Structures are given as structure tokens and as C-alpha cells.
Amino acid sequence: MKEFINSLRGDKVIWAFVALMAMLSFMPVFSASSNLAYMRHGSGNAFTYLLKHAAQVFVGFFILYKIHKVPYHYFKTISKIMLPVVWILLVYTLLKGTMIDGANASRWIQIPFIGITFQTSTLAAIVLYIYVARFLSKKRETPITFKASIWELWTPVFITLALILPANLSTAALIFSMVLMLVFIGKYPLKYIGVILGVGLVSLVFFVLVAKAFPGAFPNRVDTWISRIDNFATDKPDEDDYQIEKAKIAIASGGVYGLGPGKSVQKNFLPQSSSDFIYAIIVEEYGLFGGLFVLGLYLLLLFRFVVAAHKSTTLFGKLLVVGLGFPIIFQAMTNMGVAVELLPVTGQTLPLISSGGTSIWITCIALGIIISVTKKEEEIAEDEAEKAKREAALQKLIDKQLEEDELEEEDFSIVENQNPLDVVLNK
């Protein structure tokens, strides 16, 4: 085990945070999965779900380990190749979205033969962030112009968002906001960002108006997320109120110290208690201290991402860390905001803690790339240290040789200054 830990490269603090969050996830997932066990199997035995979660975490860490060994500059080319692939997957998802527990889950597709459901929008987000970082980090003889960036940058962005939006507004909004943050950090002209923001908002409003004018015209979840926004803004009662009320009861029941591990009551009534609303279960069982502890872990991880971005010596590396790391934290804050009714119900999971293979695996891919960036900086530092060590050893040899030459010169000068008669007598 010690040898395996020593073989891990890159930022050890990020590795530690990821491992800690993964280990902490087992107790709330095991506890919150009991309602799924009742609904699907008629018993409260959630051990099967615990094993499933353990397998998903194991696969996730395997993915992370393999990804972190890939030199991060390879992802420039990979993103360009993968972008058309994710567009095809998104179109397929819109047309063939699967049903999960009888509900419309058009954000997901089922992988043939193995029966695993997969959320394509999360993969599309990773690929798009890398693609945008690639564009911003390209070496240019002239500054970026709006006209030149329309086709190469914004057209792929809006195609991706247009394919995600009908099924998943929250993910589309998250991706769009993260792309805007990324181009801002990448020193894309601010006036052009304002234009793009305006175009994006106008396009969204137009889409919503069309969807309202022709109800049921879109064979996806458009009506669902439009009604969620309307009800959140007007406080109209709907089915989401049930989830929010149960989440708030769970949080209030937890108090300061919590009911104790596995003693949640609302897990038996709260839908998606092991994924979308797992934060409410954590606060109910571990109290305010447990909720703040989880929040603190994400904030510390954010700080570590900032440190990693600052240490990177290339613009592409900096943008990768920001573009892949910040969405993880933003998604976590969104999940917590939904649990306390600061935001409408979005369906965003709590990264590294909620159950769900897609969320865990995509998060591990993003973290693997981030650690790959830090690994490169570590290798550069090691090379510089080795170079300094070799230079010090060479300098030591030179100094030693100079000392020997000085001693020989002193001996020669002594002999040269002696009287020849003294030399003969000495012999």
C-alpha cells in the first residue's frame, strides 16, 4: 500500500481530499439507500447499494489513476476529436432518452449489453471545457477578434448547449456560466463576453417562449424545468415542494449535532435521498457540524485548485485546472443550495459523495486531468532539482581540481626557488 501511495504523482493534497470525500460518502449513501431498497425490493437492506457504490468508487479511482498518468497536453487533440462524438451522443440522448423508475430521464442513455445508464451531458461538459481552454491557449501573432472566434469558439459552445438545454436546463446553465468564467480568465475581450452573454440570454428567453406557446412540442423535460422555475419564482405548490419540504425537515431535525449515523427519518420519505438530496441526509444525521465540515472540504479543495492553477507554468494548464476544477465546486454549492431552498430543484449531485456512477466517473476524469497538470509541474521541479544537484556536483569537482592545481603550483614554485646546492645536499 505504501508503494502504491508513493507511486501517485501530482498534488498530494488533492489526492488526499478526493480520498477523504470518497470514504466519507459510504456512510450517508448506505443510510440514504434504504428507501430505495424498500421501494424496489420490499426490504430495508441497503447492502447491495453499498456494494454498488463501492464498485463505482473503485472504478472511479481506477479512471483517475490512469488519467493522471497521461500528459495533459494530449487532451488538446483529444478534445477536438471528442467534440463531434459527444454531439452525436447528445442527439441520440434527445431521441432515445431512457426511463428510470418509470420517470422521464431523457438526460440518460443506456449502454447496450451491460445495462448501465450514462448521462451524456456531463461528458460533453468536460470535453467542452478542454476545447475552450485549448482555443484560449493557442499561440497567435494577432489578438483574438470576435469575428475569428465566432466559428472556432462560440459555434461549438452553442451547439453543445442547444443539445443539452431541452433535457437539462441546470447543466446547460452551469456549463454556460463556467465557459464565460473560463474565457474571462483566459483574457478574452470583456466587451465580446458581454455580447455573448446577451445572445445567450435572448436565445434562452426565445426558447422558453416557444416552448410555452407550443406545450408538449418538445419530447423531453422542457415543460418540467420551465414549471419548476415558474413555481420557484411564484411560490406555487407543486411536486417539487414535497422534496424541498422533506429536505428542510431533515435539516431542521439534525440540529447542531445530528441524530447520529444511520438514524435519518426523512430518508424514508425523501426521493433521491442518496443522490440529489444527500446533503439534507448528511445534515440530519451529522448535524450542523457535519454540514459545515462537508462545505469546508469543498472550499479547501477550491483553494487547492487555485494553488495548482497558480503554480502551472503554461496557460493551457492554468485554464484546465480552472475549467475542470471550479465546476466541481460550483456543482457542489448548487446541490447544497437546492437542499436549503436557495435554488430550484436542479438534479445536480454532490460530487464524490452522492451515489451515481456517471457523476463519480466524470468527476474522476476531471480530477485526473487536474492532477496530471500538477504532475507535470512536479516533474519540472524535480528536473530542476536534479539539474541543480548535477551542477553542484560538477562545481565540486571543478573546485577540487582547482585546489589540486594550486597545490601543484605551490610545490613547483618552492622547488624552483630553492638553491641547487641545497637540492644536492638534501639528496
Describe this structure in words.
Its main location: membrane. Residues 371-410 form a coiled coil. It holds the Pfam family FTSW_RODA_SPOVE. One of its GO terms (molecular function) is peptidoglycan glycosyltransferase activity. The protein has one domain (2-385). It is 74% helix and 3% strand. It is built from 15 helices and 4 strands. It has helices at residues 2-7, 12-32, 34-41, 47-68, 74-96, 120-137, 146-164, 169-185, 190-213, 222-234, 239-254, 278-311, 315-339, 357-417, 420-426; strands spanning 98-100, 103-105, 108-110, 117-119. Helix 6 (120-137) runs parallel beside helix 8 (169-185) and helix 12 (278-311) runs parallel beside helix 14 (357-417).
- Tell how many strands the DSSP assignment holds: 4
Number of helices: 15
Major β-sheet profile: 2 strands, antiparallel
Helix content: over 70%
Taken in chain order, the helices and strands follow as HHHHHEEEEHHHHHHHHHH
What's the oligomerization state? Answer: single chain
Concise summary:
With 427 residues, the protein is an all-alpha fold.
Question: What is the secondary structure topology, with strand pairs?
Answer:
Layout: H1 2-7, H2 12-32, H3 34-41, H4 47-68, H5 74-96, E1 98-100, E2 103-105, E3 108-110, E4 117-119, H6 120-137, H7 146-164, H8 169-185, H9 190-213, H10 222-234, H11 239-254, H12 278-311, H13 315-339, H14 357-417, H15 420-426
Antiparallel strand pairs: 1-2, 3-4
Helix pairs in contact: 2-4, 2-12, 4-14, 5-6, 5-7, 6-7, 6-8, 6-13, 7-8, 8-9, 8-13, 11-12, 12-13, 12-14, 13-14
InterPro entries: FtsW/RodA
Transmembrane segments: 12-34, 46-65, 77-95, 107-132, 144-163, 169-185, 192-214, 277-303, 315-333, 353-373
Protein name: Probable peptidoglycan glycosyltransferase FtsW
